[in-house]
Amino acid sequence: MIMTYENVLTEIENGILTITVNRPDKLNSLNNKTIEELHEALLEAENEKDIKAIIITGAGTKAFVAGADIAEFADFNVTQGRQLSATGHFKIFNFIENYSKPVIAAINGFALGGGLELAMACHIRVASDNAKMGLPEVSLGVIPGYGGTQRLAQLVGKGKAFEMIVTADMINAEEAFRLGLANYVTKQEDLLSKCKEIGSKIALRSSVAIKTAIKVINAGYNKQENGYEVEIEEFGKMFGTQDFKEGVNAFLEKRKANFPGN
Ligand code: COA
Fold first, then answer.
1. 11 is catalytic
2. Which of 19, 45, 119, 138 is deepest in the core (most CB within 10 A)?
3. Is 117 assigned a catalytic role?
4. Average pLDDT, stretch 243-255?
5. Do residues 230 and 160 share a domain?
6. What gap in Å lies between CA 179 and CA 241, rounded to an integer?
7. In a mutational test of the pocket of ligand 1, which residue from 22, 29, 61, 152 has the highest number of ligand atoms less than 8 Å from its CB?
């Protein structure tokens, strides 16, 4: 990573890029600059072959991301409100969901509104035991605008999503785990090491196969596509990759695969 950012810290270790949203005095809330910088950092990492997985977390011990920056959008009109949502979808939330490398949310505290939406756009979520999650938008007179109305129902089911969104209530980490919103719950001091452990497994696998798996899983949630048909096509294409040849040869030769990544 060449670029440095104001509201976002980046660190690469063993093929895993950790991106830390760094506005702890505003509980890491997402203002426009932070959205732009997150997008830029992800764009930069997309082209770096040595980066195999991404972890997104928040600075400090209190918050992952406490939502969109309420102060910044307080005076917005209808057009600006629509634009806020559309830009966010394009630059961050859909962008992460369709990213070519797995993105893990390390939820180290409050994940509210846009913060929970950020975590839900990630492929895997790990929460620390102090985490609190919710979509409190209706208490501000708005609705979730960064994919929350769709992804929460996909992850926890429609009934619980309705309840969380219309009551604006927060849930704790244990409840998030029980609902399938968090894959794991750890002590705060173990959170990043758990995410890195997951990332290090990802780093050993075929990056081409992983990229394709992400695409095909997402296809099933896209009303324009038939996930099963996309799976057939993409499965076939894998047989033309070097990673497939290496993976199968390594198995037959009883050795560990060393994937070239193409
Ligand atoms: N947007 C802008 N600023 C935010 C913010 C947000 N989403 N969340 C927190 N902050 C700011 C606070 O305004 C405060 O700034 P200040 O010190 O300049 O006054 C600072 O972060 C610390 O937050 P504070 O509210 O004092 O902490 P707390 O421990 O009392 O409460 C929360 C923590 C998370 C319960 C509370 O900050 C909150 O409800 N935040 C908004 C969550 C939300 O509705 N998000 C959805 C947005 S669509």
1. no
2. 119
3. yes
4. 98
5. no
6. 37
7. 29
Distance CA 167, CA 186 (A): 27
**Which residue in 40, 97, 117, 174 is the catalytic one?**
117
Range of the domain at 240: 207-252
Q: Residues 116, 216: one domain?
A: no
Measured from the CB, is residue 112 less than 6 Å from ligand 1? yes
The reply to whether 247 and 173 lie within a common domain is no
On whether residue 3 sits in a domain, the answer given is: no
pLDDT of 216 reads 98
Residue 128 CA to residue 173 CA, distance in Å, equals: 7
Same domain? 165 vs 224: no
In total, how many domains does the chain have? 2
Cα 138 to ligand 1 centroid, rounded to whole Å: 16
Domain assignment present for residue 260? The answer is: no
The 10s digit of each residue's pLDDT in 133-185 is 999 999 999 999 999 999 999 999 999 999 999 999 999 999 999 999 999 99
Instruction: Compute the half-sphere exposure of residue 226: CA atoms within 13 Å on the CB side of its CA.
Output: 4
Q: Which secondary structure element, helix H or strand E, spans residue 79, and what is its range?
A: helix 78-88
Give tens-digit pLDDT for 24-33. 999 999 999 9
Confidence band of 2 (pLDDT split at 50, 70, 90)? confident
Residue 118: name the closest of 186, 177, 30, 213 by CA: 30
* 257 occurs within a structural domain: no
